[in-house]
Amino acid sequence: MKKIKFGVAVLLLLAGGLGFPALGYADEVADEESPPTIDSLSAQLKILQRQYEIQQEDQAAKISDAPVLTANPKDGFQIKAANGNFNIRFKGLIQSDAKFYASGQKDSAIPGSFYAKRIRPGFEGSLFKFVDFAFTPDFGNGATSLQDAYIDLKFAPEWNLRTGKFKTPFGLERLQSSASTLFVELGLPSSIAPNYDAGIQLYGNVWDAKLDYAVAVLNGVSDGKSADLDTNDSREFAARLFAYPLKNPDSDYIHELGVGVAATWGNKKGTNLSGYVTPAQATFFSYSNTQPNGNNFRFSPQFYYYIGSAGILGEYALVQNELKTTTGNITSATLTNQSWQVAVNYFLTGETPSFKGVTPADPFDLAKNTWGAWELKARYGELTIDPDTFSKGFASATASASKAKELALGINWHLNKNVKAALEYERTTFESAIASATSRPNENLVLSRVQVSY
Rounded to two decimals, what is the model's pTM? Predict the structure, then answer.
């Protein structure tokens, strides 16, 4: 009998400690003449065990459904479900720039000034692990525009489908994140490369992620430009292959090698043609009374190589357009413009550069006497206009240059992964199409930038 009483007391204590309601056996325990049976105690014990299991399951369910909040340099500001089905990451890029002319005649329409080059708050995320999305507006330069606005269907690493507005898969420097570009302004080949366009794209990576591919059908945009809508019924096609032949994560010496080729082709008539600009964003070449009149084609081989603390990036871009004049004696011709650049960088503080940016080994911290990463940089590039452009009346030889040559030198200070400052000097010289034309004055420019990105 004492053993039975003791067992009942243990059960009651367990019930009270686990927060379960009393099971109504107090009277039975007190009643010496009506003790509970072993079977009834066993049944009640099973009920208690099951109630405890249910309570634990409820607590586990609440934990699994609780969102995970992240805030760190790698992932930025992120909210995601514990099961991974939903997540959203908040992005931001602010670039505060300044440009001043060191010497020489400046373009009166482009004065030296302080300005906010890019102000891009945005977000990206995923739904059920196979639907991604991104949205990025831009409020820089005193204007509002839409950058990324797309939806991805991610079926497998080998093939994914993107629709909306996104970067045309063509120019190497254009495809690099604006937060990771080496110089304040893009090089001359980016004047030819299309920027953001609307359409649909199939992309992925194969061969153990050693080859990226992208094939897109787009509205089509002018050289160096972006657009939200099309101006005619013609489409533009784009394709790009980019390989990583020496991909080896275990190598400390050969960090990153990429080589690829890209092309666009289409048929345009009656649309606007873009001119080309200097690093100060002054137009040095523009067409006169000219419209597209048929096929247009672009081609670009490109590469980058990062080894030790040094890096090199190069690209060539060619654009071929069928054009016609719109006044006087109508003239038609196929014209070819081309550009190239080579940029090199070196980290004085020993970091390994990357196409996607760098994380300083010792982020800036006065308390610890650490100063971040310091990077030297240099770039040379040229852009050449087809001579027939001037001889056949598609552009004015006195108003536009036939060739631009750019040399840039500078230094970047990476305070940490998210903050960067840049200072550089850029000299651009010009050539005229005819000897009798007055050459455009050289452009000598000092550029600076302070940037925050996450």
Answer: 0.82
